[in-house]
Design brief:
By secondary structure, the protein is of the alpha+beta class. The chain is about 25% helix and about 35% strand. The protein has one domain: 2,3-Dihydroxybiphenyl 1,2-Dioxygenase, domain 1 (Roll). Strands 5, 6, 7, 8 and 9 form a five-stranded mixed sheet that branches. The chain has a four-stranded mixed sheet with strand order 1-4-3-2. It comes from Alsobacter soli.
Length: about 130
């Protein structure tokens, strides 16, 4: 249903460094950057894999309120790695890695607040081995 999503961040360079570190452990990377002159607004960074940006941050006035974005993780270990990388990069805990059976029996996720306070999650739906 969703092709890509993006939102403005309060400090583009700081958020670029944060998401580069955090998404790397899930197998995603910086796919492209568009400078402010080209975009006609703020600088943009698109993250994804296989040359396809699916998650974007944009230099600009941050959104008031909290967004929730969940990134797919290949396995529970990737969720654990995401949480550790996010915390090391300055995130705030919003729920450590673990099963969330209230969603479904194999839902293994971790939640952090990013540098602008957005609820960022990594989730694996095949966590039945834990």
């Amino acid at each position: 249903m969703i092709d890509h999503i993006g939102f403005p961040v309060s400090d583009y360079q700081r958020s670029l460094a944060f998401y580069t570190k955090v998404l790397r452990v899930l197998g995603y990377g910086l796919v492209m950057e568009v400078d402010a002159e080209t975009s006609g607004g703020g600088a943009h960074a698109g993250f994804g894999r296989d040359g396809r940006p699916q998650f974007w941050i944009t230099e600009g006035e941050p959104i008031v309120g909290r967004l929730h974005v969940a990134f797919a993780a290949a396995d529970p270990e990737a969720v654990d790695d995401f949480y550790a990388a996010a915390m090391a990069a300055g995130a705030t805990d919003n729920g450590p890695p673990g099963l969330r059976p209230h969603y479904h029996p194999n839902y293994y996720g971790a939640f952090v607040f990013d540098l602008d306070g957005h609820n960022i999650e990594a989730v694996c739906h095949e966590a039945g081995l834990r």
